[in-house]
Request: fold
Amino acid sequence: MSVESPDKAKWWESAVIYEIALISFQDSNGDGKGDLAGLMSRIDYLKWLGVDAVWLTPIYKSPFRDLGYDISDYCSVDPAFGSLEEFDQLLKALHGENIRLILDLVPNHTANDHSWFVESSSSRHGTKADWYIWADAADNGGPPNNWLSRFGGSGWEWCEARRQYYYHSFLVEQPDLNWRNPQLRDAIADVMRFWLDRGVDGFRVDASAVLIKDALMRDNPPNPQAEGKPPPQRQTPVFTDDRPETMDCIEFIREVIDTYPGRMLCGEVQGKTDRIGHFYGNGKPRLHLPLNFALLDTPWNALSLQAAIDAYFNAIPDHGWPVWVIGGHDKQRIASKIGEAQMRVLAMLLMTLRGTPFFFMGDEIGRKRVPIPSDRVRDPFEKLVPGFGLCRDPERAPMRWDENPDGGFTNGEPWLPLESPDGAANVAAQQRDERSMLALFRALMALRREHACLRRGGYEPLRSQNDVLAFGRTDGADGFLIALNIAAEPRKYHWQGRGRLMMSTHLDRPPEPLPDASILLRGNEGVIIAIEVR
Reply:
């Protein structure tokens, strides 16, 4: 089955999107790192699971100091992952199964061995001299201002060849690009066209809120709530993050992708919920889907979730489409936060809220954080800012496909260790269990595909009481009630009208009419009820 015409309805509004860190998904050659051929071998799993699109973390040529977000060549595949030919074969195979492919676009910075930076750092007078953020030393010979790197220490690094400092928001080896330079913008547009012409279905824009820094290079003020925070958070990044001019950069990126019908732009944004609306665009369009992490960041109780959901919907402009994210390569596994039982409830919440669901590989089996011995840590965040629980390796550990010590991921030494197979969640065991977490994710996605109401219907808030989070979805004569027990003890839930039970998170209640307008929810149980819409 081929992908339908891109001129049809916006596919991303009905899609379920699955993030894959390629290096940790499936190794095909025994080097301990996942690759394109490994992903190709798992397409049957993606089809069986029922996802509509895959988002890959960077696959480009890179020294891989920061999961590939330090890019040496935007228009090549890193040899550790494969080749451009293998990429084209993968894309064709995914499209053949009606699965779209989204790539990471990293427009804020490159690796310091990228040819652009090599030229820019060699002279103040070359054609790319102004493609990065350069500044003279302060009067005392030190950095131009007090801006910090997210990975600790000053954000400025001295370059002897130019006798200037360059700015890096992240690693010293990740110099920031200068988005005030028109030639640099055009070069990024050419990168996008390179991949769009190959047929990719969109991009996730990395660090989209920090593309522009203050032109006056004013010092950031201290953070009044800095106590106990890691050093990089001891300033309020007023002059480095979420500058108004950044929106112009995002609008430029959107203009490029809009010349390719049916392509989608999502992006990593920052700030509180009430700031998310401007990433959709006002006079000009920006992101189709600004990624929303409210479900990850909200305290796990019915009243807090009710408030977070309401605040988010109120923050979205009328033309905006909602998006919900429950995991990612930079986010701690939520199953470790809320536990396996409530992870099932979260799965139902994710797949029934109005909007586009995103989840990260392993979320579908309820995977928790993998313990990483100190001598196996790879994440520069933990190495440079230790002791604050910032390590992201526990989320990035290789996928566990089966009960074997190597998890079915590799026949070599995995680049990051896996957890002990004893009792660990794995795909093979859960595929054999018709009531597993994996079975629940699959059933929820199937129900979502079957009922347009769950994909495109309206959202009706209901009052959450007694630890039960509840809301409705309506679409003409079609309607659903979703009731989620956030407590470990039973709760009774009442509603108006007649209903039919469609699904329980426990997967042990068959679809059946309900004798009255109430249901006893077991501890940690969510239900979907089809109701008569008057």
